[in-house]
Amino acid sequence: MGDDDLDLASAQDREGLAALLRTVHARAGRPSLQTLEERLGGTESKSTLADMLTGSRFPKQTVMAAFLTACDLTAEQVAAWDLAWQRIAGTEHRRAAAEIEAPHAMVDLGLLERGHGDLAAARHWFEEAIATQHPEHAPAAMINLAFLDWMQKDFPAARRRYMEAIATGHAEHAPAAMINLGPLEKKLGDPAAARRWYMEAIATQHPEHAPAAMINLGLLEKGQGDPAAARRWYRQAIAATTQYPDFSAIARSELEQLDRDDQAQRHAAWYAKYGHQYIDPTIMRRPPTSRPGSDHEDNPGADDPPQEAEQPQQ
Q1: How far apart are CA 238 and CA 103, in angstroms?
Q2: pLDDT at 100
Q3: Which pLDDT does position 3 carry in this prediction?
Q4: How much is the pLDDT for 290?
Q5: pLDDT at 264
Q6: So what's the pLDDT on residue 283?
Q7: What is the pLDDT of residue 18?
Q8: Would you state the pLDDT for residue 97?
């Protein structure tokens, strides 16, 4: 069969190449994909051949050459197609690189616009990156968009975006979304949900996010009045942290604070039991001083709730 009348130079991309290949296929009598697979000795699957003919994927040179041979083209004719393939391959490689870089650039643009205070533009670029469904950059955009929603106090939207990031199963961004959902659920008054998400993050065994979740879980348990559970989580964080010494330092600091709290409680219990008869001078405190017009004690903010070790990640 001849194909010398086909203008191979007209094909500039994989879609153009596919159109010419479909012409060859039609001139060969349109053998079925099953027949073509058999002619190729089963080396190429029907789905691979279908992708080549539809232009949904740029074919390997060997696959195209085998297909042309199966459609009765001569070796000389196949060689001309090989030259066309080499020319188009350069374009397709640049195209593939652009398809990879574009979502990354969208996330970067979102961060840039947010840094400049244009939250509407930031939202636009994060949503554009999510729409690409890129396996790496779309989950990152989801977390950044959730952080943006958090900033704007749209907590239900933030929760939804974090859940979407978790659903991707991304090894990095899914655990990050989990430890961000923890403080969000706590803020919304659901400590049980916060605890569940911290546990989910810990179960991933991520080298950074799992220890961070342990520390946050310790803070949560401390705030819920369970210092024993808090102590266990701080110790686990210390044992699990090797690559991130800052987390270990935070956990040790929180353990030391628990020890100080325990000592203060023991002293208070002792004083409540024995009173002024056996005053321990080490726990005596100077009464708070008052300034005219002020009801504040010397240590304002002592009763502030503990802060999360991790702020919403970007």
Answers
A1: 37
A2: 66
A3: 62
A4: 36
A5: 84
A6: 46
A7: 94
A8: 66
For 150-182, give one letter per residue: b (16+ CB within 10 A) or e: beeeeeeebbebbebbbebebeebbbbbbbbbb
Q: What is the pLDDT of residue 262?
A: 85
Say how far apart CA 211 and CA 234 lie, in whole Å. 9
Q: How many CB atoms lie within 10 A of CB 23?
A: 13
- Give me 130's structure tokens: 């999510």
In this structure, the number of other CB atoms found within 10 A of the CB of residue 237 comes to 28
108 neighbors 130 (Cβ within 8 angstroms): no
Which long-range contacts link 248-253 to residues 24+ away (Cβ below 8 Å)?
Answer: 248/211, 250/215, 250/309, 251/211, 251/214, 251/215, 251/218
- For the chain, list residues with pLDDT below 70: 1-4, 97-100, 274-314
Please, what are the domains in the chain?
8-97 (1.10.260)
For residue 266, what pLDDT is reported?
A: 83
**Taking the complete model, does pTM exceed 0.85, yes or no?**
no
Q: Please report the DSSP string for the chain in residue order.
A: ---TTS-GGG--SHHHHHHHHHHHHHHTT---HHHHHHHTTTSS-HHHHHHHHHTSSPPPHHHHHHHHHHTT--HHHHHHHHHHHHHHHHHHHHHHHHHHHHHHHHHHHHHHHHHTT-HHHHHHHHHHHHHTT-TTHHHHHHHHHHHHHHHTT-HHHHHHHHHHHHHTT-TTHHHHHHHHHHHHHHHTT-HHHHHHHHHHHHHTT-TTHHHHHHHHHHHHHHHTT-HHHHHHHHHHHHHH-SS-HHHHHHHHHHHHHHHHHHHHHHHHHHHHHHGGGG--GGG--PPPP--TT----SSTTTTPPPPPSSPPP-
Place of tokens 């010419």: 20
Q: What one-letter code names the amino acid at 11?
A: A
Q: What is the pLDDT of residue 68?
A: 93
